[in-house]
Amino acid sequence: AAPTLAVRVATYGRLQLVSNPDFVKVSGGAYGPWPHDADANVATALALGAARVAAAATGSLCIYPATVAGSEDAWEVRWRAPGSPVVRQERFLDYGQSELKHFATRMAALGASAMLGPLELAATEPMQFWSACFRAKDAFKHLAAAAEAVRPGSSADWGVDAITNGLSQGAKLSKSMNYDWRKAEETLMTAAAQSEACADKMRSMLAMRGSVQGVVMCMNRGSRPAGKNLVISLDEGERGTPVEHAMMLMMRDKAWAEEQGLSEDQLASKFEDLMQQWGGGEVTKATPGSWAGHLTHGPVGGSSATGSGGGGGSSSSSSS
Question: Which of 36, 65, 137, 282 could form a disulfide with 178 if both were Cys (CB 3.0 to 4.6 A apart)?
């Protein structure tokens, strides 16, 4: 008989990313705190993996070039699990379709083809999972083919169709707001062919638009928790950047507005002006001014997929 998912995750030994106590668990379709218990790490890994998969299946995510200086080769994903108020941010490296194929082939050769499923990848290899989401149908097709070659029928319960459909629906909504993350890599390559300066400028624009639009996607896709405010996790390196400024404006943060002497209408106007500056004016038409909450610097119950997310304390501000 095939080993249980918990045993697969435990034996793989990639649990250092899930040692924090505030990760989510699945409970009646909702996501909440996990107990402070080291023995719960395996279940915690599966729960966080399930949350990532659920976000992909509902299209509640957006992938974009990393916004923090020094991470120019990385990508970020902003996502929210259905039923959770937290918009999470993770950073990952993408090595392309050929590397993903090689990874799948090697895992199968090592007798670990069971680890190629979306849940297992999301729990133990989040970078590979987000890379697969980035490349969607083709990527998951290659992963399934590698597993099927070893054990026919092993991918039947992976739920790949639901994931790829959710990714497609989310990408279409994102595209309608002037940022198509499925074309981001191609756009960057086109800019790079012109000059390095052109590539750097385009990367900054895509990063800004994608980061903000990720929050918009999380507002618009997936079920919302009743009576809870939104929590947006920002990297420590985003303090004082246009990304933080845009989030403050988008959240219609009352305390911050009072400090700046601005009304809510003025906040909305400034947000629109800022997004126009970064080529993402369409985002403002789909941004709910309600369901606001607060910003938190550093990981909220988690770290980046590469383990290099912001650390330290948090600086948050609330609004109603």
Answer: 282
What is the pLDDT, as a whole number, of residue 282? Answer: 65
* Tokens found for residue 175: 């595209």
Query: Is there a contact between 129 and 52 (Cβ–Cβ < 8 Å)?
Result: yes
Given a contact cutoff of 8 angstroms between Cβ atoms, the answer to whether 71 and 79 are in contact is no
pTM of the model: 0.76
- Residue 13 has what DSSP assignment? T
Which tens digits make up the pLDDT trace of 172-212?
A: 888 887 788 889 999 999 999 999 999 999 998 898 888 88
What CA–CA distance (Å, rounded) separates 21 from 297? 17
CA angle 135, 139, 125 (to 5 degrees): 90
Q: What is the pLDDT of residues 34-87, one digit of tens each?
A: 444 444 566 677 788 889 999 999 999 999 998 777 888 899 999 999 888 888
β-partners of residue 64 are 76
Structural element, H or E, at residue 88: strand 86-92
Residue 181 burial (CB count, 10 A)? 27
**DSSP 8-state assignment for residue 289:** S
State residue 157's pLDDT score.
81
Nearest CA-CA partner of 113 in 208, 250, 207, 8:
8
3-state secondary structure (DSSP) of residue 236:
helix
The DSSP H or E segment spanning 62 is strand 61-65
**What are the residues whose beta carbons fall under 8 Å from the beta carbon of 30, sequence distance 6 or more?**
83, 84, 225
The angle at the Cα of 108, spanning 104 to 112, to the nearest 5 degrees, equals 105
Coil, strand or helix: which one is 146? helix
What pLDDT sits at residue 106? 87
- Strand-pair partners of 232: 87, 295
Neighbours of 141 (CB within 10 A): 15
What is the model's pLDDT at position 227? Answer: 75
